[in-house]
Amino acid sequence: MIRVVLPPHLRTLARVDGEVELEVKTPVTQRSVLDALEAQYPMLRGTIRDHVTRLRRPMVRFFACGEDLSHEPPDVPLPDVIAKGSEPFLIIGAIAGG
Q1: Is 8 helix (H, G, I), strand (E, B) or coil?
Q2: From residue 67, how far is each of 39, 62, 72, 79, 96 by CA, in Å?
Q3: What secondary structure does DSSP assign to 17-64, as a single string?
């Protein structure tokens, strides 16, 4: 099982508390995790990735093992500790302001 941590506004939308656990087929990649997340929680479609391009929305970031993976290609395998469920895959809402 893959562990995913969503930002508060997406947890509210998905009606979940805390981490989400997903069954993800190998190889475990950003794309496969997001596909599984959107399949299990269809109300999240379009909130993390654009409906048409399937690209990450600009104000959303992905982190794993303390590293920003937001600009990594979506089909690069995630670290083994993510694939094994030892560490969570973090989806963070970026903060902007001025």
Answers
A1: helix
A2: 26, 8, 11, 10, 20
A3: -S-EEE--PSS-BHHHHHHHHHHH-GGGTTTSB-TTT-PBPTTEEEEE
CATH topology of domain 2-93: Ubiquitin-like (UB roll) (3.10.20)
The pTM score is 0.92
Domain locations along the chain: 2-93
How many other β-carbons are positioned within 10 Å of the β-carbon of residue 89?
Answer: 28
Give the model confidence (pLDDT) of 1-11 as tens digits: 999 999 999 99
Residues 6 or more apart whose Cβ sits within 8 Å of residue 25: 32, 36
Which residue is associated with the tokens 């190998």?
26
79-88 pLDDT, tens digit each = 999 999 999 9
